[in-house]
Design a protein that fits this description.
Layout lengths: L5 E6 L4 H15 L4 E5 L5 H6 L2 E7 L8 H12 L9 E7 L9 H12 L3 E2 L4 E3 L4 H15 L30 E10 L9 E7 L12 E4 L5 H11 L6 E4 L2 E4 H7 L8 H11 L2 H7 L2 H10 L2 H7 L6 H7 L6 E4 L10 E7 L2 E3 L4 E3 L1 H8 L6 E7 L14 E6 L4 H13 L5 E7 L2 H4 L3 H9 L5 E6 L10 H7 L1 H9 L3 E6 L4 H16 L4 H13 L3 E5 L1
Amino acid sequence: MNNNTLYILHGSRTGNSKAVAELAHAYANYHGIPSICESMDDFSEETFKNAKIMLIAVSTHGEGDPPVQAEAFYEYIHQADHADFSAKKIAVLALGDSSYRHFCKTGMDIEKRLKEFGSTSFYPIVKCDIDFEEPSKQWVKDTIDKIKPEFEIQEKDKKNKEFVFELKLDDQNKYNAYNAEILEKKQLNQGSQEKRTYHLTLSLKNSDIDFMPGDSIGVYCPNSKLFVDQIIKTLGFDPTYPIETESGLVLLKEALVRDYELTMLTPVVVRKYADIIKNRSLNTMLADKETLQAYVNENDILDLITDFPAQITPVEFVSILRKLSPRLYSVASSNIISKDTVDLTVGIIEFDTPSRTHIGVGSSFISERIELGERIPVFLEPNEKFRLPGNSDIPIIMISTGTGIAPFRAFLQERKLKVPDSKNWLFFGDRYAKYDFLYQSDIEKFKQDGILTRLDTAFSRDNQHKKKYITHKMLDNKQEFFEWIQKGAVVYVCGNKRTMAESVRKTMIEIIASEGNMQEKNAVEYFHGMKSRNQYLEDIY
Protein backbone atom coordinates (compact mmCIF):
# COMPACT_ATOMS: atom_id res chain seq x y z
CA MET A 1 0.00 0.00 0.00
CA ASN A 2 1.44 3.33 -1.07
CA ASN A 3 0.75 5.88 1.65
CA ASN A 4 1.76 8.69 -0.69
CA THR A 5 -1.79 8.71 -2.02
CA LEU A 6 -4.72 11.02 -1.43
CA TYR A 7 -7.95 9.08 -0.96
CA ILE A 8 -11.19 10.83 -1.94
CA LEU A 9 -14.44 9.22 -0.82
CA HIS A 10 -17.92 10.30 -1.82
CA GLY A 11 -21.42 9.30 -0.76
CA SER A 12 -24.14 10.78 -2.91
CA ARG A 13 -27.79 10.15 -3.77
CA THR A 14 -28.18 12.71 -6.54
CA GLY A 15 -24.57 12.84 -7.73
CA ASN A 16 -23.56 16.18 -6.22
CA SER A 17 -21.02 14.76 -3.76
CA LYS A 18 -19.63 12.59 -6.52
CA ALA A 19 -19.15 15.65 -8.74
CA VAL A 20 -17.23 17.43 -5.96
CA ALA A 21 -15.05 14.37 -5.34
CA GLU A 22 -14.26 14.03 -9.04
CA LEU A 23 -13.29 17.71 -9.16
CA ALA A 24 -10.95 17.15 -6.19
CA HIS A 25 -9.47 14.13 -7.96
CA ALA A 26 -8.85 16.18 -11.11
CA TYR A 27 -7.30 19.07 -9.15
CA ALA A 28 -5.03 16.67 -7.26
CA ASN A 29 -3.86 15.15 -10.54
CA TYR A 30 -3.30 18.65 -11.93
CA HIS A 31 -0.76 19.17 -9.14
CA GLY A 32 0.78 15.74 -9.58
CA ILE A 33 -0.66 14.35 -6.35
CA PRO A 34 -1.38 10.61 -6.60
CA SER A 35 -5.07 10.19 -5.77
CA ILE A 36 -7.84 7.62 -5.78
CA CYS A 37 -11.50 8.64 -6.00
CA GLU A 38 -14.22 6.13 -5.18
CA SER A 39 -17.75 5.81 -3.90
CA MET A 40 -18.29 4.82 -0.28
CA ASP A 41 -20.15 1.70 -1.40
CA ASP A 42 -17.00 0.54 -3.21
CA PHE A 43 -14.55 1.27 -0.41
CA SER A 44 -12.02 -1.39 0.59
CA GLU A 45 -11.60 -2.03 4.32
CA GLU A 46 -7.86 -2.53 3.86
CA THR A 47 -7.53 0.67 1.86
CA PHE A 48 -9.49 2.60 4.44
CA LYS A 49 -7.35 1.34 7.31
CA ASN A 50 -4.10 2.26 5.58
CA ALA A 51 -5.05 5.58 4.03
CA LYS A 52 -3.27 8.47 5.72
CA ILE A 53 -4.96 11.47 4.12
CA MET A 54 -8.60 11.53 3.07
CA LEU A 55 -11.06 13.96 1.56
CA ILE A 56 -14.70 13.03 2.20
CA ALA A 57 -17.70 14.53 0.40
CA VAL A 58 -21.05 13.22 1.57
CA SER A 59 -24.68 14.30 1.49
CA THR A 60 -27.46 13.82 4.03
CA HIS A 61 -30.75 12.19 3.10
CA GLY A 62 -34.06 13.21 4.67
CA GLU A 63 -34.00 13.51 8.45
CA GLY A 64 -30.30 12.96 9.01
CA ASP A 65 -29.79 9.61 7.27
CA PRO A 66 -26.81 8.73 5.06
CA PRO A 67 -27.56 8.25 1.36
CA VAL A 68 -27.80 4.65 0.12
CA GLN A 69 -24.25 4.76 -1.28
CA ALA A 70 -22.86 5.73 2.14
CA GLU A 71 -24.87 3.36 4.33
CA ALA A 72 -22.35 0.51 4.47
CA PHE A 73 -19.44 2.85 5.16
CA TYR A 74 -21.44 4.72 7.81
CA GLU A 75 -22.42 1.47 9.53
CA TYR A 76 -18.87 0.12 9.30
CA ILE A 77 -17.26 3.03 11.11
CA HIS A 78 -19.99 3.08 13.77
CA GLN A 79 -20.22 -0.66 14.46
CA ALA A 80 -17.00 -1.23 16.42
CA ASP A 81 -14.03 0.50 17.96
CA HIS A 82 -11.73 -0.37 15.03
CA ALA A 83 -8.65 0.05 17.18
CA ASP A 84 -6.52 -0.91 14.17
CA PHE A 85 -7.50 2.23 12.28
CA SER A 86 -4.45 4.32 11.58
CA ALA A 87 -4.71 7.99 12.48
CA LYS A 88 -5.65 10.06 9.46
CA LYS A 89 -5.71 13.60 8.34
CA ILE A 90 -9.18 14.30 7.03
CA ALA A 91 -11.28 17.05 5.53
CA VAL A 92 -15.05 16.71 5.22
CA LEU A 93 -17.50 18.47 2.91
CA ALA A 94 -21.07 17.94 4.14
CA LEU A 95 -23.90 18.61 1.71
CA GLY A 96 -27.44 19.13 2.95
CA ASP A 97 -30.63 21.16 2.93
CA SER A 98 -31.05 23.69 5.74
CA SER A 99 -34.84 23.35 5.61
CA TYR A 100 -34.34 20.00 7.36
CA ARG A 101 -33.70 19.84 11.09
CA HIS A 102 -30.62 17.60 10.86
CA PHE A 103 -28.74 19.78 8.38
CA CYS A 104 -25.57 18.03 7.08
CA LYS A 105 -25.79 15.42 9.87
CA THR A 106 -24.14 12.57 7.94
CA GLY A 107 -20.98 14.56 7.22
CA MET A 108 -20.78 15.78 10.82
CA ASP A 109 -21.32 12.24 12.15
CA ILE A 110 -18.54 10.83 9.96
CA GLU A 111 -16.07 13.53 10.98
CA LYS A 112 -16.92 13.06 14.66
CA ARG A 113 -16.52 9.26 14.47
CA LEU A 114 -13.19 9.40 12.64
CA LYS A 115 -11.88 11.88 15.19
CA GLU A 116 -12.79 9.35 17.90
CA PHE A 117 -10.32 7.00 16.21
CA GLY A 118 -7.56 9.60 16.42
CA SER A 119 -7.99 11.33 13.07
CA THR A 120 -7.48 15.07 12.85
CA SER A 121 -9.21 17.56 10.59
CA PHE A 122 -6.56 19.44 8.66
CA TYR A 123 -9.35 21.68 7.35
CA PRO A 124 -12.58 22.61 9.19
CA ILE A 125 -15.72 20.83 8.04
CA VAL A 126 -17.63 22.82 5.42
CA LYS A 127 -21.43 22.53 5.51
CA CYS A 128 -23.16 23.40 2.23
CA ASP A 129 -26.80 24.21 1.66
CA ILE A 130 -28.51 23.54 -1.68
CA ASP A 131 -26.43 26.40 -3.16
CA PHE A 132 -23.39 24.20 -2.83
CA GLU A 133 -21.47 24.81 -6.04
CA GLU A 134 -19.24 27.77 -5.14
CA PRO A 135 -18.41 26.77 -1.54
CA SER A 136 -17.64 23.22 -2.67
CA LYS A 137 -15.27 24.45 -5.39
CA GLN A 138 -13.54 26.61 -2.77
CA TRP A 139 -13.30 23.58 -0.47
CA VAL A 140 -11.60 21.56 -3.19
CA LYS A 141 -9.07 24.31 -3.87
CA ASP A 142 -8.34 25.10 -0.23
CA THR A 143 -8.01 21.53 1.01
CA ILE A 144 -5.72 20.33 -1.75
CA ASP A 145 -3.59 23.48 -1.68
CA LYS A 146 -3.18 23.03 2.07
CA ILE A 147 -2.33 19.33 2.00
CA LYS A 148 -0.10 19.46 -1.09
CA PRO A 149 3.20 19.67 0.87
CA GLU A 150 2.43 16.28 2.46
CA PHE A 151 2.93 14.45 -0.82
CA GLU A 152 5.81 13.51 -3.05
CA ILE A 153 4.66 15.48 -6.04
CA GLN A 154 4.89 13.93 -9.49
CA GLU A 155 5.56 17.06 -11.50
CA LYS A 156 3.45 17.35 -14.63
CA ASP A 157 3.72 19.57 -17.65
CA LYS A 158 0.73 21.90 -17.18
CA LYS A 159 1.41 23.63 -20.50
CA ASN A 160 0.72 27.00 -18.83
CA LYS A 161 -2.91 26.06 -18.46
CA GLU A 162 -4.82 27.21 -15.42
CA PHE A 163 -7.05 24.64 -13.74
CA VAL A 164 -10.75 25.17 -14.44
CA PHE A 165 -12.93 24.61 -11.39
CA GLU A 166 -16.05 23.19 -12.97
CA LEU A 167 -18.42 20.67 -11.41
CA LYS A 168 -19.72 18.03 -13.80
CA LEU A 169 -23.24 17.78 -12.45
CA ASP A 170 -26.09 15.68 -13.72
CA ASP A 171 -27.92 17.98 -16.13
CA GLN A 172 -31.36 17.01 -14.89
CA ASN A 173 -32.58 20.56 -14.55
CA LYS A 174 -35.10 22.98 -15.93
CA TYR A 175 -33.18 23.38 -19.18
CA ASN A 176 -33.62 19.75 -20.23
CA ALA A 177 -36.55 18.70 -18.06
CA TYR A 178 -39.46 17.05 -19.83
CA ASN A 179 -42.47 19.32 -20.41
CA ALA A 180 -45.32 17.10 -19.28
CA GLU A 181 -48.89 17.79 -20.36
CA ILE A 182 -51.49 17.92 -17.58
CA LEU A 183 -54.09 15.28 -18.49
CA GLU A 184 -56.11 15.40 -15.28
CA LYS A 185 -56.38 17.78 -12.34
CA LYS A 186 -59.00 17.33 -9.65
CA GLN A 187 -59.43 18.15 -5.98
CA LEU A 188 -59.61 14.97 -3.93
CA ASN A 189 -61.24 16.48 -0.85
CA GLN A 190 -64.08 18.49 -2.36
CA GLY A 191 -66.07 20.38 0.25
CA SER A 192 -63.30 20.55 2.84
CA GLN A 193 -63.04 23.97 4.45
CA GLU A 194 -59.64 23.29 6.03
CA LYS A 195 -57.31 22.10 3.28
CA ARG A 196 -57.03 21.21 -0.38
CA THR A 197 -55.43 18.14 -1.95
CA TYR A 198 -55.12 17.64 -5.70
CA HIS A 199 -54.69 14.59 -7.91
CA LEU A 200 -52.68 15.19 -11.10
CA THR A 201 -52.14 12.91 -14.05
CA LEU A 202 -49.23 13.90 -16.29
CA SER A 203 -48.33 12.61 -19.74
CA LEU A 204 -44.82 11.13 -19.98
CA LYS A 205 -45.16 10.02 -23.59
CA ASN A 206 -41.74 9.98 -25.32
CA SER A 207 -40.10 11.32 -22.15
CA ASP A 208 -37.76 8.37 -21.41
CA ILE A 209 -38.79 8.77 -17.75
CA ASP A 210 -38.89 5.23 -16.32
CA PHE A 211 -40.36 5.62 -12.84
CA MET A 212 -41.01 3.02 -10.16
CA PRO A 213 -43.25 3.01 -7.08
CA GLY A 214 -41.34 4.84 -4.35
CA ASP A 215 -39.84 7.39 -6.75
CA SER A 216 -40.80 11.05 -6.94
CA ILE A 217 -41.44 13.44 -9.79
CA GLY A 218 -39.75 16.82 -9.48
CA VAL A 219 -41.72 19.83 -10.70
CA TYR A 220 -40.07 23.18 -11.44
CA CYS A 221 -42.43 25.78 -10.00
CA PRO A 222 -41.77 29.49 -10.52
CA ASN A 223 -42.74 31.98 -7.84
CA SER A 224 -45.98 33.92 -8.17
CA LYS A 225 -45.41 37.24 -9.97
CA LEU A 226 -47.88 38.93 -7.64
CA PHE A 227 -45.95 37.70 -4.61
CA VAL A 228 -42.68 38.91 -6.13
CA ASP A 229 -44.28 42.33 -6.74
CA GLN A 230 -45.15 42.53 -3.03
CA ILE A 231 -41.54 41.83 -2.06
CA ILE A 232 -40.12 44.36 -4.53
CA LYS A 233 -42.59 47.02 -3.36
CA THR A 234 -41.80 46.37 0.33
CA LEU A 235 -38.08 46.77 -0.31
CA GLY A 236 -38.52 49.76 -2.61
CA PHE A 237 -36.55 48.12 -5.42
CA ASP A 238 -36.64 48.81 -9.15
CA PRO A 239 -37.97 45.58 -10.76
CA THR A 240 -35.75 46.21 -13.82
CA TYR A 241 -32.52 46.34 -11.76
CA PRO A 242 -30.01 43.97 -13.46
CA ILE A 243 -28.94 40.95 -11.37
CA GLU A 244 -26.12 38.53 -12.20
CA THR A 245 -27.37 34.91 -12.12
CA GLU A 246 -26.12 31.53 -13.32
CA SER A 247 -27.80 32.19 -16.66
CA GLY A 248 -26.33 35.67 -17.04
CA LEU A 249 -27.61 39.18 -16.41
CA VAL A 250 -31.35 39.11 -15.60
CA LEU A 251 -33.86 41.72 -14.50
CA LEU A 252 -34.51 41.59 -10.75
CA LYS A 253 -38.19 40.65 -11.05
CA GLU A 254 -37.45 37.85 -13.50
CA ALA A 255 -34.67 36.51 -11.27
CA LEU A 256 -36.93 36.49 -8.20
CA VAL A 257 -39.71 34.73 -10.10
CA ARG A 258 -37.48 32.08 -11.61
CA ASP A 259 -34.36 31.54 -9.54
CA TYR A 260 -34.79 32.20 -5.81
CA GLU A 261 -36.59 30.61 -2.86
CA LEU A 262 -39.08 33.09 -1.39
CA THR A 263 -41.87 31.13 0.31
CA MET A 264 -39.59 29.09 2.57
CA LEU A 265 -37.25 30.38 5.29
CA THR A 266 -34.32 28.56 6.89
CA PRO A 267 -32.10 29.56 9.83
CA VAL A 268 -29.22 30.06 7.37
CA VAL A 269 -31.20 32.67 5.39
CA VAL A 270 -32.20 34.53 8.55
CA ARG A 271 -28.58 34.61 9.76
CA LYS A 272 -27.38 35.99 6.43
CA TYR A 273 -30.01 38.73 6.59
CA ALA A 274 -29.07 39.51 10.20
CA ASP A 275 -25.38 39.83 9.25
CA ILE A 276 -26.33 42.56 6.76
CA ILE A 277 -28.91 44.60 8.67
CA LYS A 278 -27.44 44.41 12.24
CA ASN A 279 -30.87 44.45 13.89
CA ARG A 280 -30.83 43.93 17.68
CA SER A 281 -34.24 42.23 17.84
CA LEU A 282 -33.32 39.85 15.04
CA ASN A 283 -30.01 39.00 16.71
CA THR A 284 -31.90 38.24 19.93
CA MET A 285 -34.12 35.79 18.05
CA LEU A 286 -31.07 34.16 16.47
CA ALA A 287 -29.68 33.46 19.92
CA ASP A 288 -32.73 31.35 20.82
CA LYS A 289 -32.69 28.20 18.68
CA GLU A 290 -36.28 27.16 19.42
CA THR A 291 -37.67 30.64 18.75
CA LEU A 292 -35.71 30.83 15.51
CA GLN A 293 -36.97 27.43 14.36
CA ALA A 294 -40.57 28.37 15.16
CA TYR A 295 -40.18 31.60 13.19
CA VAL A 296 -38.80 29.94 10.03
CA ASN A 297 -41.49 27.26 10.19
CA GLU A 298 -44.30 29.82 10.04
CA ASN A 299 -42.92 32.70 7.98
CA ASP A 300 -41.48 33.53 4.57
CA ILE A 301 -39.17 36.11 3.00
CA LEU A 302 -41.89 38.78 2.86
CA ASP A 303 -42.51 38.32 6.60
CA LEU A 304 -38.78 38.60 7.33
CA ILE A 305 -38.30 41.90 5.50
CA THR A 306 -41.57 43.24 6.96
CA ASP A 307 -40.87 42.21 10.57
CA PHE A 308 -37.25 43.41 10.43
CA PRO A 309 -37.17 46.24 7.87
CA ALA A 310 -33.86 47.67 6.70
CA GLN A 311 -32.27 49.58 3.84
CA ILE A 312 -30.46 47.01 1.69
CA THR A 313 -29.46 46.83 -1.96
CA PRO A 314 -30.88 44.37 -4.49
CA VAL A 315 -27.50 42.61 -4.64
CA GLU A 316 -27.42 42.24 -0.86
CA PHE A 317 -30.97 40.94 -0.83
CA VAL A 318 -30.30 38.33 -3.50
CA SER A 319 -27.14 37.26 -1.63
CA ILE A 320 -29.19 35.97 1.34
CA LEU A 321 -31.57 33.88 -0.78
CA ARG A 322 -31.39 30.18 -1.51
CA LYS A 323 -31.67 28.81 -5.00
CA LEU A 324 -35.26 27.88 -5.88
CA SER A 325 -35.58 24.10 -5.61
CA PRO A 326 -37.97 21.91 -7.56
CA ARG A 327 -40.85 20.46 -5.56
CA LEU A 328 -40.90 16.68 -5.25
CA TYR A 329 -44.13 14.68 -5.31
CA SER A 330 -44.33 10.94 -4.66
CA VAL A 331 -45.44 8.82 -7.59
CA ALA A 332 -49.01 7.63 -6.91
CA SER A 333 -49.27 5.06 -9.70
CA SER A 334 -47.47 1.96 -10.96
CA ASN A 335 -45.77 2.06 -14.33
CA ILE A 336 -47.09 -1.44 -14.95
CA ILE A 337 -50.51 0.14 -15.47
CA SER A 338 -49.14 2.87 -17.74
CA LYS A 339 -45.60 3.90 -18.63
CA ASP A 340 -46.88 6.93 -20.54
CA THR A 341 -48.65 8.59 -17.60
CA VAL A 342 -47.91 9.21 -13.94
CA ASP A 343 -50.20 10.18 -11.07
CA LEU A 344 -49.19 12.65 -8.36
CA THR A 345 -50.88 13.68 -5.10
CA VAL A 346 -50.32 17.29 -4.10
CA GLY A 347 -51.24 18.74 -0.73
CA ILE A 348 -51.71 22.51 -0.81
CA ILE A 349 -49.69 24.23 1.90
CA GLU A 350 -51.55 27.39 2.90
CA PHE A 351 -52.49 29.16 6.10
CA ASP A 352 -53.87 32.52 7.17
CA THR A 353 -52.24 35.10 9.42
CA PRO A 354 -53.69 38.47 10.47
CA SER A 355 -51.83 40.17 7.62
CA ARG A 356 -52.35 37.79 4.69
CA THR A 357 -52.67 34.23 3.35
CA HIS A 358 -49.44 32.28 3.06
CA ILE A 359 -49.14 29.65 0.32
CA GLY A 360 -46.18 27.58 -0.85
CA VAL A 361 -44.65 28.06 -4.28
CA GLY A 362 -45.60 24.59 -5.49
CA SER A 363 -49.03 24.92 -3.90
CA SER A 364 -49.90 28.17 -5.64
CA PHE A 365 -48.43 26.95 -8.94
CA ILE A 366 -50.44 23.73 -9.01
CA SER A 367 -53.68 24.96 -7.46
CA GLU A 368 -53.94 28.41 -9.06
CA ARG A 369 -51.53 28.84 -11.95
CA ILE A 370 -51.81 25.75 -14.18
CA GLU A 371 -54.74 24.18 -16.01
CA LEU A 372 -55.58 21.08 -18.07
CA GLY A 373 -53.66 20.86 -21.32
CA GLU A 374 -50.79 23.05 -20.14
CA ARG A 375 -47.27 21.69 -19.86
CA ILE A 376 -45.00 21.84 -16.82
CA PRO A 377 -41.26 20.99 -16.57
CA VAL A 378 -40.67 17.75 -14.66
CA PHE A 379 -37.92 15.21 -14.02
CA LEU A 380 -37.53 11.88 -12.26
CA GLU A 381 -36.10 11.73 -8.73
CA PRO A 382 -35.38 8.03 -8.03
CA ASN A 383 -35.60 6.86 -4.43
CA GLU A 384 -33.69 3.61 -3.99
CA LYS A 385 -34.39 3.76 -0.25
CA PHE A 386 -38.13 3.27 -0.67
CA ARG A 387 -38.61 0.19 -2.81
CA LEU A 388 -40.92 -2.78 -2.57
CA PRO A 389 -39.19 -5.98 -1.35
CA GLY A 390 -37.37 -7.94 -4.01
CA ASN A 391 -38.83 -11.10 -2.47
CA SER A 392 -42.56 -11.03 -3.20
CA ASP A 393 -43.32 -13.36 -0.27
CA ILE A 394 -42.35 -10.66 2.24
CA PRO A 395 -45.39 -8.94 3.81
CA ILE A 396 -45.47 -5.15 4.02
CA ILE A 397 -46.95 -2.67 6.50
CA MET A 398 -47.66 0.82 5.12
CA ILE A 399 -48.18 3.74 7.52
CA SER A 400 -49.31 7.06 6.08
CA THR A 401 -51.04 10.34 6.75
CA GLY A 402 -52.44 12.78 4.21
CA THR A 403 -50.61 12.81 0.89
CA GLY A 404 -48.32 10.11 2.30
CA ILE A 405 -50.88 7.70 0.83
CA ALA A 406 -49.48 8.39 -2.67
CA PRO A 407 -46.63 5.84 -2.82
CA PHE A 408 -48.82 3.20 -1.17
CA ARG A 409 -51.47 3.55 -3.87
CA ALA A 410 -48.64 2.79 -6.32
CA PHE A 411 -47.36 -0.07 -4.13
CA LEU A 412 -50.80 -1.70 -4.01
CA GLN A 413 -51.35 -1.32 -7.75
CA GLU A 414 -48.03 -3.07 -8.32
CA ARG A 415 -48.62 -5.82 -5.73
CA LYS A 416 -52.09 -6.49 -7.22
CA LEU A 417 -50.61 -7.15 -10.66
CA LYS A 418 -47.37 -8.87 -9.62
CA VAL A 419 -48.16 -10.72 -6.38
CA PRO A 420 -51.93 -10.83 -5.83
CA ASP A 421 -51.52 -13.32 -2.95
CA SER A 422 -49.16 -11.04 -0.97
CA LYS A 423 -49.91 -9.79 2.56
CA ASN A 424 -50.34 -6.01 2.79
CA TRP A 425 -51.44 -3.91 5.77
CA LEU A 426 -52.28 -0.22 5.42
CA PHE A 427 -52.63 2.39 8.16
CA PHE A 428 -53.99 5.71 6.96
CA GLY A 429 -54.83 8.83 8.94
CA ASP A 430 -56.12 12.33 8.28
CA ARG A 431 -58.63 14.81 9.71
CA TYR A 432 -62.14 13.96 8.51
CA ALA A 433 -63.30 10.69 6.94
CA LYS A 434 -65.92 12.56 4.87
CA TYR A 435 -63.40 14.83 3.14
CA ASP A 436 -59.90 13.50 3.70
CA PHE A 437 -60.03 9.76 2.98
CA LEU A 438 -57.84 10.20 -0.10
CA TYR A 439 -58.37 7.63 -2.87
CA GLN A 440 -61.10 6.04 -0.74
CA SER A 441 -62.71 4.13 -3.62
CA ASP A 442 -59.32 2.76 -4.74
CA ILE A 443 -58.37 1.69 -1.21
CA GLU A 444 -61.73 0.04 -0.54
CA LYS A 445 -61.47 -1.82 -3.87
CA PHE A 446 -58.02 -3.12 -2.87
CA LYS A 447 -59.58 -4.38 0.37
CA GLN A 448 -62.51 -5.94 -1.46
CA ASP A 449 -60.18 -7.68 -3.94
CA GLY A 450 -58.06 -9.11 -1.13
CA ILE A 451 -54.92 -7.11 -1.97
CA LEU A 452 -55.21 -5.29 1.34
CA THR A 453 -55.03 -7.93 4.04
CA ARG A 454 -55.74 -5.31 6.69
CA LEU A 455 -56.88 -1.69 6.63
CA ASP A 456 -56.86 0.58 9.69
CA THR A 457 -57.86 4.24 9.46
CA ALA A 458 -57.86 7.10 11.96
CA PHE A 459 -59.59 10.44 11.37
CA SER A 460 -58.59 12.72 14.22
CA ARG A 461 -61.26 15.43 13.88
CA ASP A 462 -64.27 13.13 13.65
CA ASN A 463 -64.31 12.89 17.44
CA GLN A 464 -63.23 16.21 18.93
CA HIS A 465 -63.47 14.85 22.49
CA LYS A 466 -61.13 11.92 21.90
CA LYS A 467 -58.86 12.42 18.93
CA LYS A 468 -57.45 9.23 17.48
CA TYR A 469 -54.32 9.05 15.34
CA ILE A 470 -52.69 6.23 13.39
CA THR A 471 -50.27 5.62 16.27
CA HIS A 472 -53.31 4.75 18.42
CA LYS A 473 -54.37 2.28 15.74
CA MET A 474 -50.89 0.75 15.78
CA LEU A 475 -51.11 0.31 19.56
CA ASP A 476 -54.64 -1.12 19.31
CA ASN A 477 -53.20 -3.86 17.09
CA LYS A 478 -49.77 -4.14 18.68
CA GLN A 479 -49.76 -7.93 19.09
CA GLU A 480 -50.48 -8.64 15.43
CA PHE A 481 -48.27 -5.73 14.38
CA PHE A 482 -45.29 -7.25 16.20
CA GLU A 483 -46.08 -10.72 14.80
CA TRP A 484 -45.88 -9.30 11.28
CA ILE A 485 -42.52 -7.69 12.11
CA GLN A 486 -41.18 -10.99 13.46
CA LYS A 487 -42.24 -12.67 10.23
CA GLY A 488 -40.07 -10.18 8.32
CA ALA A 489 -42.66 -7.60 7.27
CA VAL A 490 -41.10 -4.42 5.89
CA VAL A 491 -42.54 -1.29 7.49
CA TYR A 492 -42.92 1.76 5.23
CA VAL A 493 -43.70 5.22 6.59
CA CYS A 494 -44.71 8.22 4.49
CA GLY A 495 -45.90 11.54 5.87
CA ASN A 496 -44.93 14.74 7.64
CA LYS A 497 -41.34 14.85 8.92
CA ARG A 498 -41.98 17.15 11.88
CA THR A 499 -44.90 15.37 13.53
CA MET A 500 -46.05 12.05 12.11
CA ALA A 501 -42.68 10.39 11.49
CA GLU A 502 -41.34 11.00 14.99
CA SER A 503 -44.51 9.73 16.68
CA VAL A 504 -44.48 6.56 14.53
CA ARG A 505 -40.86 5.85 15.54
CA LYS A 506 -41.71 6.22 19.23
CA THR A 507 -44.76 3.98 18.83
CA MET A 508 -42.71 1.34 17.00
CA ILE A 509 -40.26 1.22 19.92
CA GLU A 510 -43.13 1.07 22.42
CA ILE A 511 -44.69 -1.89 20.58
CA ILE A 512 -41.36 -3.72 20.29
CA ALA A 513 -40.68 -3.24 24.01
CA SER A 514 -44.18 -4.34 25.03
CA GLU A 515 -44.70 -7.32 22.73
CA GLY A 516 -41.06 -8.41 22.71
CA ASN A 517 -40.76 -8.20 26.51
CA MET A 518 -37.76 -5.91 26.19
CA GLN A 519 -36.41 -2.99 28.12
CA GLU A 520 -36.55 0.29 26.21
CA LYS A 521 -32.81 0.20 25.49
CA ASN A 522 -33.11 -3.23 23.84
CA ALA A 523 -36.22 -2.16 21.94
CA VAL A 524 -34.32 0.83 20.55
CA GLU A 525 -31.50 -1.50 19.44
CA TYR A 526 -34.06 -3.82 17.82
CA PHE A 527 -35.62 -0.88 15.98
CA HIS A 528 -32.22 0.36 14.78
CA GLY A 529 -31.54 -3.16 13.57
CA MET A 530 -34.72 -3.00 11.50
CA LYS A 531 -33.49 0.24 9.96
CA SER A 532 -30.02 -1.12 9.18
CA ARG A 533 -31.42 -4.18 7.39
CA ASN A 534 -33.97 -2.07 5.50
CA GLN A 535 -36.96 -3.51 7.35
CA TYR A 536 -38.04 0.00 8.35
CA LEU A 537 -38.09 2.62 5.59
CA GLU A 538 -39.22 6.25 5.57
CA ASP A 539 -40.13 8.73 2.86
CA ILE A 540 -40.94 11.88 4.83
CA TYR A 541 -41.35 15.50 3.85
